[in-house]
Write a structure and sequence with these properties.
The protein has about 180 residues and is an alpha+beta fold. The chain has one domain (about 1-5, about 20-180): Alpha-Beta Barrel (Multidrug-efflux Transporter 1 Regulator Bmrr, Chain A), CATH 3.20.80. It is built from 3 helices and 11 strands.
């Protein structure tokens, strides 16, 4: 089973190269902070108690088995909420209208349009890198009086598990809303 789990070429994005997978939204370049709008989306979600960085690849495995078993196209990126641990795969445009079932391991969700503060980064998908980028994004957002954080920061991963850590691309997002006067 483990061999099957990674049998497909999961080469999301490598050092800026196009991946061949549909993108759920535009990537924020490394070193850039911005406010961006993410369109409505259909997503597959797997969750567990605890902290994301302590779950290994369990959530990824559940989601990968679901897309394999239900013949759903893989998209990039994947979203990882930190605590409680939750990972989302976005459903591609070709499968968005399909009726996909909830299972014991995976739920199907419809996400509304949303705004996020986003910081693009490079490096391994570690707790340390996430916390450093999240702190940098919070400081950037604090200097913008027109927006305020609406929820906690989460990670957005663009690269395959097989890409070397120094080449991986990721973002940290903080959902935002317009600041009240």
């Amino acid at each position: 089973m483990r061999q099957t789990l990674y049998a497909l070429p999961i080469v999301f994005a490598c050092a800026g190269a196009a991946s061949g997978y549909e993108s759920a939204f535009a990537r924020t370049n490394a070193g850039v902070a911005e406010i961006k709008t993410l369109g409505p989306a259909k997503a597959l979600a797997a969750a567990t108690d605890g902290v994301y960085f302590d779950t290994g690849n369990a959530l990824f495995g559940r989601l990968f088995r679901y897309i394999r078993d239900h013949n759903v196209a893989m998209t990039v990126p994947v979203q990882a909420e930190i605590q409680p641990a939750r990972m989302l795969f976005f459903v591609g445009a070709g499968d968005a209208a399909r009726s996909l079932p909830d299972t014991e391991a995976v739920t199907v969700e419809t996400l509304p349009q949303r705004q996020v503060a986003s910081l693009g980064a490079r490096g391994g998908y570690s707790r340390r890198n996430f916390e450093r980028a999240a702190a940098e994004l919070r400081a950037w957002l604090a200097a913008r009086p027109d927006y305020e954080a609406a929820e906690d920061a989460y990670a957005v991963y663009w690269s395959s598990p097989f890409v070397p850590a120094f080449l991986k691309r990721y973002e940290v997002h903080i959902p935002v809303r317009r600041a009240s006067d």
